[in-house]
Amino acid sequence: MRFRTFGKFRKFTATLAAVLVAAGLAACSSGPSGGDPMTITYWASNQGPTVQRDKEILTPELEAFTRQTGIKVNLEVIDWQHLLDRITTATTSGDGPDVVNIGNTWSASLQATGAFVDFDDATLAKVGGGDKFLATSMSSTGAAGITPTSVPIYGLSYGLFYNKKAFEAAGITSPPASWSDFLAAAKKLTDPAAGTYGISLAGASYTEGAHFAFILGKQHGGSFFDASGRPTFATPQNVAAIEQYIALLGTEKVAVPSSAEHARTADAVADFTSGKAAMMIAQTNTTAAIAAGGMAEGDYGVAPMPINDPLPAGGERVNSHVAGINIAAFKDKNTDGALKLIEFLTSPAEQVKLNQEFGSLPVTKDAAADPAFQGAKTKIFLEELATTSAPMPMVPNESQFETTVGSAVKEMLAQIAGGKPVTQAEVQAALAGAQQKLGGTG
Amino acid sequence: MVTPVGTRPAVPAVPRTGRRRGWSPSRRVLPYLLIGPALLFELLVHVIPMLTGVSISFLQLNQFYLRRWLQAPFAGLANYRIAFDLQSEIGLDLLRSVGITLAYSAVVVSVSWLFGIFGATLLQSSVRGRSLLRTFFLIPYALPVFTAVIVWKFMLDHDSGLVNHVLAGTGLGDGNTFWLLGDNAFISMALIGIWRLWPFALLTLMAGLQSIPTEVYEAAEVDGANRWQQFTGLTLPMLRPVNQVLVLVLFLWTFNDFNVPFTLFAGSTPASADLVSVHVYQSSFITWNFGLGSAMSVTLLVFLLVVTSLYIAVTSRRARNA
To answer: What CATH number should be reported for the domain holding residue A47?
Structure first.
């Protein structure tokens, strides 16, 4: 009996060792998926109010794709907090999905990894050709002069959301177009004793901080990178841009004080829908979150984000970055299947359906002309995306720029919330420090 | 049943069947066979990743080489030079982060130990509801970290948090404090760290106290020692081996704590709560400089090894001299 048990034990250990070695080898492999050519994996970003809601929206569309092509799609919706980590890990291990959504501001950084299929002319032709996309959306698909490695799927731009009733009560007849009008309106709408404020910000979100530093920086004639891609953070123009943004909470005192603690746009939306804040500057798809917060569509209006008037010397009329989501295919996977899915999701019919559901903007010319996107609010966002938006710096260091500059802005807002004003010298020093962090061996 | 020494129990004769006898491991091989699977997993889960991390610290591994990370150029000690360069923002930030982590460990370990020893001493005496109290005190340790920290996050929220609400209601504060921003973020993080860890100290010290024979205390009482003298003269010295391990484990856990700051600040960690684990994560995953992140990790590994070795050497010597 004892001997038989040991025989079994021996077999067990041998099997275990074989399994472990096989698992180890499988984990190390980075070759083609090589499995079923009729199955692909798709990592979608979280576009709707919840991951679950995204699954509900995407599943019937992917089933339609399966009926059309015979290719089965394994869908995973990943929240934004983890998406970049998952992509980075997949890139290193070679064990990733076939198709993935990426934030379009990451395009150049991820392009540099060489993990994604190049969208050269021949590949673009397989997804319907590069001409079908809006030019501005295509401007955020990678570094200039290098073949893009992603194409747009959802478009977004910043706009000013305002509470119509609050405006009426304060005697404000039209939404502000210039920054000075915006500040005047925000002051009128601010009454700390009543707990109401002009605006709410997602002040603890480093991405929001970086976006506003970039947009207002453009208005001040600043740039965070020079033509050769070297960082130029601590310029007087960029300092002025950040001072202008943090003044909303600091010297102007028109922002909800807890804005400094808001890590997500949803927190600012909650202030807006509850009536605590009369305005917020947020991206297109915030409409879905506002509806989820119980505010009727007729109760709020949308206007372009206010612009400095007059513009400082060298300033540009920019009031949004080319925001949005791109879609890419991992190399050494089921590229044919992946491109078919990308073609399907960027087809006119799917662009209309999906962007309507997610409250985002179409990125193809056909879909942008669809009656579904001719509403007054949507047209404002589309117009901004097409005419007054600029792509975030398309340099490999872009994600580091967002982290370092955005975090610096976030810390400055926290300092103000803690009762300590931020001086111009401190802004300058914070930007210089952020620039130094971009150094290293990278 | 006792078998007499020197005699062999009668073994019934087993007829030989002619089957080949299976392989039987010798006494020398058996321990290695038994430890084998654990060793294999240890290699796969700890040793190989650790050695990989060390090798990455000598590479210029950034987004350009992520996909072909084995082909990343050799950087020599460049990553270490950057991490240690106190003239640069990167080196200064790392030093600041180590300082914050040491302060966090010191506060959490010392307060957790104090609460633990206080609670364990109280629960040692036969008070009513002792079992209930023990269970109650262990709840924070039993709760999943993520869930517990999320609840804390809600409670510490500026606008709708329970903490500000209670402080304002009781007149102990103005209810307008930002607990998750600025320097207060460190206090909040340390509070949660203590709340999570002191039950472990309690549990360990309770087990330690139970191993001290009651006769020792009875003898001390006969000699006229009061409670405090018994505590300092008997309890503490007899708990020394337990404390030695407990403090080391608590220190290592708090020094490497990632879950609390990461969950509490949702990836937007304030400067005052920039623990070294989060700092390394930021350096690696957010700025995509895995070579530099690994160099920082290796430096900390060496630091922890030195601290642990010194601690064990000092405490063991004291124990031998006692």
So the answer is: 3.40.190.10
Q: Determine how β-strand A158-163 pairs with β-strand A151-156.
A: unpaired
Closest partner residue to B181 among A264, A417, A441, by Cβ? A417
Phi, psi (rounded to 5 degrees) for A153:
-130, -45
Asked if residue A25 is part of any domain, the answer here is no
Q: B287 vs A404: CB contact, 8 Å cut-off? A: yes
Q: Is residue B317 part of a domain?
A: yes
> Does A191 share its domain with A292?
yes
A351-359 average pLDDT score = 94
Query: Which structure tokens are listed for B250?
Result: 């608590």
Stretch A10-22: mean pLDDT = 42
Least confident range from A260-274, B146-160, B305-319: namely B305-319
Q: For residue A310, is the peptide bond before it cis, meaning its omega torsion is within 30 degrees of 0?
A: yes
DSSP structure string for B201-261: HHHHHHHHHHTS-HHHHHHHHHTT--HHHHIIIIIHHHTHHHHHHHHHHHHHHHHT--HHH
Residue in chain A closest to B161 (alpha carbons) equals A258
Asked if A439's CB is within 8 angstroms of B82's CB, the reply is: yes
Give how far B283 is from chain A: nearest CA, Å.
9
Residue that the structure tokens 């020197």 belong to: B6
Question: Which of B159, B282, B287 lies nearest to residue A258, judging by beta carbons?
Answer: B159
pLDDT at B15: 52
pLDDT at A5 over 90: no
- The CATH number of residue B105's host domain is 1.10.3720.10
Same domain, yes or no, for A232 and A273?
yes
User: What pLDDT, in 10s, does the model give residues B294-309?
Assistant: 999 999 999 999 999 9
Are A244 and A264 within one domain?
A: yes
Q: Would the pLDDT of A31 be above 80?
A: no
Q: Do A412 and A311 lie in a common domain?
A: yes
Residue B147 neighbours by CB under 8 Å, 6+ apart:
none
> Hey, CA dihedral for A378, A381, A384, A386, is it positive or negative?
negative
Q: Within this chain, do residues A167 and A112 fall inside the same structural domain, yes or no?
A: no
The residue of B33, B67, B90 whose CB has the most chain A CBs within 10 angstroms, and thus the best one to mutate to test that interface, is B67
Q: Are residues A205 and A349 in the same domain?
A: no
ipTM for the predicted complex comes to 0.74
Mutate to test the interface with A, among B63, B81, B265 (most CBs of A within 10 A): B63
**Average pLDDT of chain B, as a whole number:** 87
Q: Please indicate, yes or no, whether residues A187 and A243 belong to a single structural domain of this protein.
A: yes
In total, how many domains does chain A have?
A: 2
The parent domain of residue A341 ranges over 39-156+322-390
The total of structural domains in chain B comes to 1
